[in-house]
Design goal:
The complex is a heterotrimer of chains A (374), B (171) and C (183). Chain A is of the alpha+beta class. Chain A has 13 helices and eight strands. Classes of the chains: A alpha+beta (374), B alpha/beta (171), C alpha/beta (183).
Chain lengths: 374, 171, 183
C-alpha cells in the first residue's frame, strides 16, 4: 500500500493499552483511523519454555507447562500427557479419560465465556464483561473444588489424572450446567442481538476461505469460513470424543459476528457433552495407570518423536515431543493455535481496517499472546 | 483411513524413493527426505490435500553435528499428520524457504532462525528478531547454550540469609 | 529516611495522604500471567471498586503499577517507560513468586529474577498465582501504608536513580523501544 509521509502516523498499539488482549503489541502506520501497514510485535511474554522443558525431568515439567497458555491451561497438560503416553505406550484407565474430557470441556466453556466477555472491552458493552467473567468464576470454583487451584490445575498427568472426583462433584457440575443453560438466552439477548455489537461486528473483519488456507488458520476461524466441521474432536477423535454426541457449529460467511455466534454455539455443545460425560462416567475404577517403574521422577521415556494435538478454543494446539531415552525430554516444540492469525494474519490482513478493529480481531479470531510467545 | 495411509506410502515410494516410514502413533507418519528433494515432496503433499502446515521446528542433534528440520503437515479431510524430516549441517545451517508453497510458514522460519540460527534463503524477513529484542548472545535453543549461567550472570540471584534459628517458634 | 521513621507531617500532607489512600488507581498493564486474575477482581464477583481502587488506562493518571508476574526483558523495557511516565506519588506492587526471585523461571534466559534491582517495589504478593482476595488484601494494606506515610518507593527511585539506571542497563542493554518495521 502507498504510504503518504505527510498524512501517516506511526502508532504503537499496546502493550500498555486497555483494548489490547494481553501483553501484545501491534505496530502500525495509520491514516486517520485507517490502518495502512501493520506488524505484530510478540515476545513480551517470552520465557523460553522450550529451553526450560529440556532442563527438567519428564514429570517435573508438569509444573511449568500449564503456564504456556494462561487462558486455557488444561490443553497443555492434555497434549503433554498424550505425547508421553504415546511414546511410553501407556494405556489410560477409562475413568481417567472421562475426567480428562470433563476438565477440557469445562475449560472450553470458561475460555469461551471469557472471550465473550472480552468483546465488551473493545466494543464498549461493559455489561457483557461483568456478566461473563462472573459466570466464568463459578466454573473456576468448580475447578478449585476438583483440583485445588483456580487457574493452573496440573490435574491431568501422564498416565491419567491426579485424583478421583471429590464427593458430590457430578451433582454440583450438573446444577451449574443447568443454571448456565437457563442464563444462556440472556446472553443471547445481551450479546448476539445487541445493536452495539451488530454495528461493530457485522460485515467487519472478514475472513474468506482462501485466506484461511493461505494463513493456516484453524479452529473457529476455519470453521466459520469453510462451512466444514474441521474440528480435531471429530476429524481425529482423542479421549472419548467418538463416544459422545455433539455437533460442530459451522458457517460459510465469516465476519466477526459469525465468529461470536459460533463461540456461543460451542458453549451450548460443550454443555451437551458435559451432560453426557456425567452420565457415562463410571463410578468406580482406577484413575491413574502406573507409568515407569518405581519413582515417578525417575521416569525414562523410550526414544522417539511424536506430535500430539488437541482442539483448543482457538484451533489445533499441539506439542512435538522428542525423546532420546534419557530422564529429560530432548526437545519439545509447542504449536500455539493462534500463531497464523496472530502474526501473519495481522501483517497481511489487518491493514484496511480501523484502529479499533484490531482488538476485535484479536478477540474474535482468538489470539492468545502467551502461547505465541511461549 | 488405513487405506489412505498405505496409498500415501506407496506413492511416496514410487515418486521419491522414500522407503523407511515410522508410525509414532495412530494416524501419523514420519519419514526422512533428502534436503534437495524436500521442497518437491512438500509441494507434492500439498497438492494431494495436506494443505495445512501445523508446525515447522528444528532439533539440535549436537553429537552428530546436525540440525533436523521437521515440517508437520495435516490433512483435515482424512486426519493424518505427516512429519517430514530433513537434516542440514549444524555448522553451516542454511535451507531454502517454503513460503511459496505454504505462505503461513513465514513466521515459523523467523522463529527457527531466531532460536537456532538457521538461515532460510528467500524469506526476506527471516533475519529479523521476533521474540528477542537486542539479543547479542548465542541462539538460545542450541544445546550448548546454558540458560542458567546466562541468567545468573545477567540478572543475578536473590541472596537469602540462611542462618535461621534451628527451632521455629522458640521454646 | 528509612521506612517506618516517624516524621512530622504538615496538615496538608496528612490531608493529601488521607485522600490518596482512599482512591488508588491501578495502571492497566497485563505484564504477565497474573493478569488473568485481574478481570475477576475488577468485575462483579469480587468488585474491587467498592474498596476504593480501580483500573486506569493511562500511566499519567495512575498511582499504582501492578507488575503481574514474571517480567521478560522486553517487557521490562516498556515497564520502565511506563513507570517513568507516571506522576508522583507512585507505587509498585510486585505480584507472584516470579517477581520476587524468578520463581519457576529462575533459569530462564529472558526473564529477570529480582524486580527490586530495576524498580522500587513497595509491596510483594506471594503465590502463584495470588488469588483475587490476596490482591485486594494487598491493595488494602497499601492504602493503609499510604495513609500512614510509610511507602516511599518513588522517593527511593529518585534518590538512587543512578544505581537503578545502571542495573537496568545491565539487564536490558538499552532502554529504548524499537519498532517492528525495523526502519
Amino acid at each position: 500500500m502507498e504510504v503518504n509521509k505527510l498524512k501517516e502516523v506511526k502508532l504503537f498499539l499496546g502493550p500498555q493499552h486497555p483494548g489490547m488482549h494481553g501483553n501484545y503489541s501491534v505496530h502500525m502506520y495509520v491514516d486517520g483511523d485507517i490502518i495502512k501497514k501493520a506488524r505484530p510485535m510478540p515476545g513480551m511474554l517470552h520465557r523460553g519454555f522450550e529451553k526450560l522443558m529440556e532442563r527438567k525431568l519428564w514429570m517435573s515439567n508438569m509444573a511449568i507447562i500449564p503456564r504456556i497458555c494462561v487462558i486455557e491451561p488444561d490443553i497443555n497438560e492434555m497434549v503433554y500427557a498424550m505425547g508421553v503416553e504415546a511414546l511410553a505406550g501407556v494405556e489410560v484407565p477409562e475413568k481417567a479419560t472421562w475426567i480428562r474430557m470433563m476438565i477440557l470441556e469445562m475449560a472450553r466453556v470458561a475460555t469461551h465465556l471469557f472471550a465473550l466477555g472480552g468483546i465488551g472491552g473493545p466494543t464498549g458493552l461493559y455489561t457483557s464483561m461483568y456478566w461473563a467473567v462472573a459466570e466464568r468464576d463459578l466454573i473456576l470454583d468448580l475447578f478449585e473444588k476438583l483440583t485445588g487451584a483456580r487457574v493452573y490445575h496440573i490435574f491431568i498427568v501422564p498416565g491419567g489424572v491426579r485424583k478421583d472426583l471429590p464427593e458430590g462433584f457430578k451433582t454440583q457440575l450438573g446444577t451449574y450446567l443447568e443454571s448456565l443453560e437457563k442464563k444462556l438466552p440472556e446472553y443471547q439477548e445481551l450479546l448476539l442481538k445487541h445493536p452495539i455489537i451488530h454495528t461493530r461486528s457485522k460485515d467487519n473483519i472478514l475472513l474468506p476461505a482462501e485466506v484461511v488456507h493461505e494463513l493456516g488458520v484453524t479452529g473457529i476461524g476455519m470453521r466459520s469460513a469453510t462451512g466444514k466441521a474441521y474440528d480435531l474432536r471429530k476429524v481425529k477423535p482423542y479421549a472419548f470424543y467418538d463416544q459422545v454426541e455433539f455437533e460442530v457449529p459451522t458457517a460459510t460467511y465469516s465476519d466477526a459476528l459469525t465468529r461470536i455466534h459460533l463461540k456461543f454455539q460451542e458453549i451450548q455443545q460443550s454443555i451437551r457433552i458435559l451432560k453426557q460425560i456425567i452420565e457415562k462416567m463410571p463410578d468406580e475404577g482406577p484413575v491413574k495407570a502406573p507409568i515407569g517403574t518405581g519413582n515417578a521422577l525417575k521416569l525414562r521415556v523410550p526414544a522417539g518423536m511424536v506430535y500430539t494435538a488437541v482442539e483448543s478454543t482457538r484451533g489445533e494446539y499441539g506439542y512435538f515431543i522428542v525423546s532420546n531415552g534419557k530422564e529429560k525430554p530432548y526437545r519439545i516444540a509447542v504449536r500455539g493455535a493462534s500463531y497464523p492469525q496472530g502474526l501473519l494474519g495481522i501483517e497481511r490482513y489487518l491493514p484496511g481496517h480501523r484502529i479499533d478493529d484490531a482488538p476485535l480481531w484479536m478477540d474474535t479470531m482468538g489470539v492468545c499472546s502467551p502461547e505465541i510467545d511461549r | 483411513m488405513m487405506n489412505s495411509m498405505n496409498n500415501l506410502k506407496e506413492q511416496l515410494k514410487a515418486h521419491y524413493k522414500i522407503a523407511a516410514f515410522e508410525e509414532p502413533t495412530k494416524m501419523q507418519l514420519a519419514f526422512n527426505v533428502e534436503p534437495d528433494k524436500t521442497l518437491d515432496v512438500l509441494a507434492y503433499l500439498k497438492s494431494i490435500g495436506y494443505g495445512q502446515l501445523s508446525l515447522l521446528t528444528c532439533i539440535d542433534w549436537i553429537e552428530i553435528e546436525e540440525f533436523q528440520l521437521v515440517y508437520i503437515l495435516f490433512n483435515w479431510d482424512n486426519g493424518i499428520h505427516l512429519l517430514v524430516r530433513t537434516s542440514i549441517d549444524r555448522n553451516n545451517p542454511k535451507f531454502r524457504t517454503i513460503e511459496h508453497i505454504y505462505p503461513g510458514v513465514k513466521y515459523y522460519e523467523r522463529d527457527v532462525h531466531e532460536f537456532f540460527g538457521v538461515e532460510f534463503e528467500g524469506n526476506e524477513d527471516s533475519y529479523k528478531h521476533l521474540f528477542l529484542e537486542l539479543w547479542e548472545a548465542d541462539c538460545p535453543l542450541k544445546k550448548d547454550f546454558d540458560p542458567l549461567e546466562f541468567s545468573t550472570n545477567r540478572y543475578g540471584n536473590r541472596k537469602y540469609e540462611t542462618n535461621f534459628p534451628r527451632k521455629v517458634g522458640g521454646e | 529516611m528509612a521506612i517506618g521513621d516517624k516524621v512530622e507531617l504538615s496538615s496538608w500532607e496528612k490531608l493529601g495522604n488521607f485522600f490518596r489512600g482512599r482512591s488508588v488507581w491501578m495502571m492497566w498493564y497485563c505484564t504477565g500471567c497474573g493478569a488473568i486474575e485481574m478481570p475477576p477482581t475488577m468485575t462483579s464477583r469480587f468488585d474491587m471498586e467498592r474498596l476504593g481502587m480501580g483500573p486506569m488506562a493511562t500511566p499519567r493518571q495512575a498511582d499504582i503499577l501492578l507488575v503481574t508476574g514474571y517480567l521478560s526483558v522486553k517487557t521490562l523495557r516498556r515497564v520502565i517507560y511506563s513507570y517513568e511516565q507516571m506522576q508522583d506519588p507512585k507505587y509498585i506492587i510486585a505480584f507472584g513468586a516470579c517477581a520476587v526471585n524468578g520463581g519457576i523461571y529462575f533459569d530462564s534466559y529472558s526473564t529477570i529474577n529480582k524486580l527490586d534491582d530495576y524498580l522500587p517495589v513497595d509491596m510483594y504478593i506471594a503465590g502463584c498465582m495470588p488469588r483475587p482476595e490476596a490482591i485486594m488484601n494487598a491493595f488494602n494494606d497499601l492504602q493503609e501504608k499510604i495513609r500512614n506515610n510509610e511507602v516511599d518507593g518513588w522517593k527511593r527511585y529518585k534518590k538512587n536513580y543512578d544505581q537503578y539506571k545502571k542495573n537496568q542497563l545491565k539487564a536490558v542493554g538499552e532502554v529504548y523501544v524499537h519498532d517492528e518495521f525495523h526502519e
